[in-house]
Amino acid sequence: MSTLAHTMMTAARPADSGLAGSGELDRYPYAESPGTDRVSPPSWDGPDAELGRVGRRAAGSRGRGLHGQLVQQLGQMIVSGDLGADRPLVPEEIGQRFEVSRTVVRESLRVLEAKGLVSARPNVGTRVRPVSDWNLLDPDIIEWRAFGPQRDDQRRELCELRWTIEPLAARLAAGHGREDIQQRLGDMVEIMGHALAQGDGITFSRADTEFHALLIQLASNRMLEHLSGIVSAALQVSGGPVTGCDRPNEVSVAHHARIVDALAAGDSHAAESAMRQLLTVHPEVERVVPAPREH
Q1: Sequence-separated (6 or more) residues with CB below 8 Å from residue 137
Q2: Residue 239: CB atoms within 10 Å
Q3: How would you classify the pairing of strands 125-128 and 88-89?
Q4: Fewer CB within 10 A of the terminal residue: the chain, N end or C end?
Q5: Maximum Cα–Cα distance for the chain, whole Å?
């Protein structure tokens, strides 16, 4: 038995681990997003649904079917360390292990190579690359790290990165006066408040994610907008009370509303301050980011 085949067999997890076995790729937990009831009013979709494209970009880019599921499976195994650096990945063995065609395996490895997880070289084959080569800003890798052994580091790093990105985005957004996006931001706050009252955490999370993506879009900075997928991924995989956005409550909704009011008033200082307050860490994880700083 080859090294890869042995690793894949010994790395098999119990049914609740999320790692599929032979012929079980259709059961992989990240293949589909959970459904959710929509809150009305305001409507989630409609003439201005185009404004939410940034917030949904990361989720919509994920492949479906056997190809997408194999990417998820192998990616999680690499990130979790089940397939270590410089480990050879033999397409024939992968195809046999997961009962998929060579074409599916080949395309999946190409996706993983684009993410920096593996490299393919003539006369060497495909091997797992060291962590230093990974695209750690890729939303899929963020998710895999967040649900693996590195989840604590991933949450801390994401929180620190958000602390850098979002106060700046809020300050820049205050000077652009896009009434359509500002209205949509207000709608998201209303949805969050309604969802909180109904105890609907899924809808709250969706509205929260779109709020932050729209805010970055409103900043009209292409470099920041490119990072919006990171913020969306951070909100979706936070897994605990790291920031005000991770714990649905009235205070969190109030901070979001303060941001909207500051944007409407064109007050960049107030918008940045409100975002810093929103991102303030809770006492139990105070080490993650510094306290908000007033200017």
Answers
A1: 227, 230
A2: 13
A3: antiparallel
A4: C
A5: 67
